[in-house]
Amino acid sequence: MATLSRNNEENLKESRHNIVNEEPRDPATETSDTLLPQDVLCDSCMDSPIEALKSCLTCRVSYCEAHLRPHLENAKFQNHRLVDPLHDIDCQTCELHQRPLEHFCLLDGCCVCLDCENQEHQGHTTASVGEARTQIETELQKKQEEISQSASAAEIAIGKLQSNNDLIKSSVQEVCVIVEQQFARLQTTVEEARKGVVDALEGEQRTALRQAEGIQAHLEQRKSELMKTVAQMNKLSRSKSDVDFLQEYSEWKKGAADVCRPSPDINRMDHLTSYVQVVTDSTQELCDLILSSYNEKLKCICKSGTKFQMPESEPSPLPDPETREDFLKYTRSLTFDPDTTHQFLRLTEDNRKLTNTSPWHHSYPDHPRRFEHWRQAITSDSLYLGRHYIEADLIGEGAHVGVAYKSIDRKGEQSTGCIAGNDFSWCVGRNSRGFFAWHADAETLLDVTDLTRLGLYVDFHRGSVSFYDATGPMRQLHKYTADFTEPLYVTAWLSKKDNVASLVNEK
To answer: Which GO terms describe its cellular component (predicted)?
Structure first.
């Protein structure tokens, strides 16, 4: 109290000194035209605003020279605390002790008065509000520099990515040229093999035709001889004398030609069938060899080429979170992207809540990122590097929430456009048979009967996506591990009417 009295006496002397030295003010001439926005006005002037001379922390009002006189001349106001004019004077005074907030508690991060410092914040490290501001501004400046450096690094990284994209495009074009050359070479080899088989078959044809021609010439000659024999036999039958007939027959028989029936068949079908079998079997073996060789080797190259290399930061050395408070440290505040929302989904609550309003659709403008078949929406911001935690409230059979790559198909009707049907999405949802986790069109039944709030935890560095029942104590429902190659986006799929998915913004 003694300290306060001394401070007030000093303020009274200072104020009186200022009044004596200052030129008298004419309130009539001090109108709003001469006041500046930063000036503090007298709270007691009703007709025309006048600039305040002092603020009273006890009264929590500001006074001009005329209305300040009672505080300077009346002993009843001697305990009032007068300071230079203050804007928002209520914010400068402790609500509990009615004293000025002159210090800052570094432990609790709040402004305190002298009584607060000696009572509730006793033993805490404090500093004057000026010193605290200087210290915090220094910290903010350092943080701003760090953020600026990070922004510059991000800009450089974006430039590198764009350059890398150009390099990838040009490299792929070069490789495509080589691939086309090699496949042209393969086609040339196949054409040579085809020509060789055709030439062999044409050779077989020429051989068979020559053989047939030779046999035909022989048969024609044989036919001529047989016709002569028939003529001789007809001549014998015309002999009138039995003795002549028998003698001529004996002579004819000595030189009679063989009358066995010639066979005109030249059967080469078995030989030609062997060609068909050889060509068919060899073609099948080569096709299988080519496809298996290309597929296996290309698959190995793709796996080694797309393996994600984590940039810059390393995995967190901290243990995995266990309690809900631990998880909330990694909370991300996300909203759904209106440009991706299906026509049957309604966005509310600052784009945090999705509701399936089928069959009522909303007149969203056409957009290349909008889902056209699957009733889904993804968030505007991604989950990339580090740890991330999101909570979502689900309502109804058919409500699903998970994460997916931005490259998910937005227009097609295939299952790959759904977060439950491809190998770059991971989700949890409910249907008529219960709660399931889905990945790559494979479902896993979850050991839970009722789930209203789902916890989604992503550790990007360790390549894990975990789902938790956040309705009560944290309980892990399922966990997936993968080598992430792209940033992840929280995605909601509402397959039935009145399904709801809400992103919870809670620290």
So the answer is: cytoplasm
